[in-house]
Amino acid sequence: MDRIVKVGMADLKVIVGDGILITLGLGSCVGIALYDKTTKTAGLAHIMLPSSKLIKNNQNKAKFVDTAVEYLLELMMKMDAQRKCITAKIAGGAQMFSFKGNASEILNIGERNVQATIDVLRQHNIPIIAQDTGGNYGRTIELHAKNGILVVKTIGHGVKIL
């Protein structure tokens, strides 16, 4: 039986070998799953916002894409992950509410989170090998450390294996 490690909102965790990292309720938030198949090191972040640079209260590194990816990489490498072997899978970034007029672009935090995630991973030379983003529905994701599989569960949209 695999041990299950819960990752809360604005949280991140790293495990090695056996175990499953789970985060619930990804709406506009993005789940960033990093994996090194050579060492079976898995890291999962549940980010809420695209950038720590626009917010004064930015102490929580797991809350923002820019700081979460950096911190996740740091923790994974402390557990012997090889940076050149790390790949990413991302999920979430939904538009949970509809807005009228020009406000929709500013308020579409899900889309901004996804774009920031893609940009930050690119800056770190981490390839995104799978993604399930957008839409208008929430997701729960599970990252399996033994094989790097990301299971995306949605109400009304079934289960996807990435």
**In CATH terms, what is the architecture?**
2-Layer Sandwich
Low-confidence parts, pLDDT < 50 over ≥5 residues? none
CA gyration radius, whole angstroms? 15 Å
Mean pLDDT: 92
Distance between the termini: 21 Å
Main beta-sheet strand count, sense and barrel state? 5 strands, mixed
CATH class (first level) name: Alpha Beta
Structural class: alpha+beta
The number of helices is 3
| Spatial strand arrangement across the major sheet | 1-3-8-9-10
Which of globular, elongated, flat, extended, rod-shaped describes the shape?
A: globular
| Integer count of domains | 1
Sheet-strand content, in percent, reads: 35-45%
Number of strands: 10
Secondary-structure element order, N to C: EEEEEHEHHEEEE
The CATH topology is what?
60s Ribosomal Protein L30, Chain: A
* Multimer state: single chain
Q: Portion of residues in helices?
A: 10-25%
Short description:
21% of the residues lie in helices and 36% in strands. The protein is α+β, with helices and mostly antiparallel strands.
Report on this model:
- By secondary structure, the protein is of the alpha+beta class.
- The protein has one domain: 60s Ribosomal Protein L30, Chain: A.
- 21% of the residues lie in helices and 36% in strands.
- The radius of gyration is 15 Å and the shape is globular.
- Belongs to the CheD family.
- It catalyses: L-glutaminyl-[protein] + H2O = L-glutamyl-[protein] + NH4(+).
- It comes from Caldicoprobacter faecalis.
- Probably deamidates glutamine residues to glutamate on methyl-accepting chemotaxis receptors (MCPs), playing an important role in chemotaxis.
